[in-house]
Design a protein that fits this description.
The complex is a heterodimer. Chain A contains 12 helices and 4 strands. Chain A is mostly helical. Chain A has a single domain, classed as ABC transporter involved in vitamin B12 uptake, BtuC (Orthogonal Bundle). In chain B, a hairpin with a 2-residue loop joins strand 1 and strand 2. Chain B has a 6-stranded mixed sheet with strand order 6-7-8-3-9-10, sandwiched between helices. The chains are: A mainly alpha, B alpha/beta. At the A-B interface, helix 7 and helix 8 of A face helix 2 and helix 3 of B.
Chain lengths: 313, 255
């Protein structure tokens, strides 16, 4: 028992870091739901491709033998290309797989099916080009396992702190963008009332593309962070992470940005708590049980409004 | 339909140069034809009102002008240029703003954010100009200044109507379209709203107004059109329409 109590704070920090990454991915689901009222099931694959991009850059840097790899310059070099390319990928997915359907007034079921299709295409394209075997992040070259911080007598790895920090900064950055800038105002206007947004002179199509870009860029960053943490990536990794992040978005109230962030953090803490207190094998059971409980007792999510159709962003 | 109401052939635009001209507009709402070939003209500086009962085609006309509905045939010309094939955002950018039916304010945003969205077409202009226009909107609607940080969805219907008008004005339109600005308002608010419409017009904005409340609308308008089942059945000066027996019977609730 004493053992558990002593590792609990450590697990809490770990849970927060994991949860912040879930929150990053969940933002992509929730923002797209906000503007299009659809679930972008290909989002988990965008996250997976982000992990591959980070891996490719890291492997390239190691191959160049540039000397000591310091996270201060290497981390941005992994994150920025992953975010830009994943953002672009998100925009393309929307143009190719969703817009042709909703622009012609297809039911909401149409884009849902093409989303699953896009997800299968991306998984298989990755498998065909990168192979089915897992790739390994050389995380130890970037964050030696000896780099640990001691907080209130609890030892925490530097990588955990960095993941928590980067995720939190990205989430805060997105919040500021959505709440305080005119771009964010346009996104919220399109989410609330697309027709009236066009009456304001807003380019609705471009705003939807921008929403996909932002959500997918955050997903790409999350892919790099998870790749660094677990060190092993494969073309199927988007499925389970996507499912978890989708759970986080629903837990927080789908369509609600703050809900996605807090839902992610909550899910991360629940998972690491379950691993510590019960058994690591039970963490998924507990996470999904929490989702079911939330859906039974507060179906609109913890931070959502009653009417799921009206609650957006 | 009595013959007296049909005065279509009469030329109606006298002095004012044309700002908006709808020529033989046919429009469909889904498969249903809502407008069967209407001609409307609005001269610079005028207040023109569009009267008619429910489902007569008034809102369809407004939505066609701003491109939310594309006409099946016919043209809309604004300041001499055909705009009927342009996307809505481009039409708005040309200098037309619509205060939509039922106001359609952004309820989950603050009053200030709503007004700034109204100024969206002017991004790129110096901030001073926009701040100055915010001030003039606040002086037209002092209530909005008091509620600047309030969520728009929590305001009363009358306040929301003022916000919808203020938001449209923030685009600095040369032509302002208003769809039923008096709908759902208490009589005190209706008078206030119509006073402000006249004030906006005095400051140089041309206005096309759709109204159920024909008596009030005709009292401030220069000219009017009467729509019925997607056709214009009368077009004349406001004074003449107010006197026409059939208009009085049909739209002013008089026996």
């Amino acid at each position: 028992m004493l053992d558990i109590i002593s590792i609990l704070p450590q697990q809490l920090v770990f849970g927060l870091a994991l949860g912040a990454v879930y929150g990053l991915i969940a933002l992509g689901y929730t923002m797209v739901y906000g503007v299009l009222t659809m679930i972008n099931f290909a989002h988990g694959e965008v996250f997976m491709i982000g992990a591959y991009i980070g891996w490719a850059v890291l492997t390239f840097l190691i191959g160049q033998q540039v000397g000591a790899l310091h996270p201060v310059w290497v981390l941005p070099m992994l994150l920025i290309p992953a975010m830009l390319l994943c953002g672009g990928l998100g925009v393309i997915i929307e143009r190719v797989a969703y817009r042709p359907l909703y622009a012609r007034g297809a039911s909401r079921l149409g884009p849902l099916i093409t989303a699953v299709g896009a997800s299968i295409v991306l998984q298989n394209a990755t498998m065909l080009t990168q192979g089915a075997r897992m790739k390994v992040y050389a995380t130890h070259l970037l964050f030696p396992s000896s780099w640990r911080f001691s907080l209130f007598g609890v030892s925490i790895s530097a990588l955990t702190i960095v993941i928590l920090l980067v995720s939190t900064l990205l989430m805060l950055g997105l919040s500021v963008l959505i709440q305080r800038t005119s771009l964010g105002r346009s996104i919220r206007a399109v989410a609330e009332d697309r027709e009236t947004a066009s009456l304001m002179g807003i380019d609705v199509g471009r705003t939807i593309s921008l929403t996909f870009f932002l959500g997918s860029a955050l997903g790409g960053a999350a892919g790099v962070l998870i790749g660094l943490y677990y060190t092993q990536i494969d073309f199927m990794m988007g499925y389970s992470a996507g499912l978890k992040a989708f759970t986080a978005a629903v837990l927080g109230g789908i369509g609600n940005i703050r809900g996605a962030m807090l839902g992610g953090l909550l899910l991360g803490i629940i998972e690491s708590g379950a691993s510590t207190l019960i058994n690591p094998a039970f963490k998924d059971v507990v996470a999904f049980a929490a989702l079911i409980l939330a859906l039974v007792f507060k179906p609109e999510g913890l931070f959502g409004e009653r009417d799921a159709d009206k609650e957006k962003i | 339909m009595c013959a007296g109401i049909l005065r279509l052939s009469k030329p109606i635009s006298d002095a004012a140069p044309s700002m908006l001209r709808l020529t033989n507009i046919v429009a469909h709402y889904g498969p249903v034809a809502a407008l069967h070939g209407i001609d409307i003209e609005v001269g610079q500086g005028e207040i023109v009102c569009l009267l008619g009962g429910n489902a007569s085609g008034k809102t369809t006309t407004m939505k066609t002008i701003v491109g939310l509905i594309k006409p099946t045939s016919g043209t809309v010309a604004f300041e001499g240029e055909i705009i009927s094939r342009l996307p809505t955002r481009t039409i708005i950018g040309r200098g037309i703003a619509l205060v939509p039916e039922a106001r359609r304010i952004f309820g989950r945003m603050t009053v200030w954010e709503n007004l700034m969205l109204g100024a969206h077409v002017r991004r790129g202009e110096p901030q001073d100009a926009i701040v100055q226009d915010l001030e003039s909107v606040y002086s037209l609607f002092p209530r909005l200044r008091e509620r600047i940080n309030q969520y728009a969805g929590t305001m009363s219907g009358g306040e929301q109507q003022m916000l919808a008008m203020g938001r449209a004005l923030m685009a600095r339109p040369r032509l302002l379209l208003m769809d039923e600005p008096s709908m759902g308002l208490s009589p005190a608010y209706v008078d206030q709203v119509f006073d402000i419409i006249q004030e906006i017009n005095r400051l140089g904005t041309t206005i096309l107004l759709v109204e159920q409340n024909a008596a009030v609308a005709l009292s401030i308008a220069r000219r009017g059109y009467v729509l019925q089942n997607g056709l214009i059945v009368a077009a004349d000066t406001a004074a003449a329409l107010l006197k026409a027996d059939d208009v009085r019977r049909a739209y002013l609730g008089e026996e």
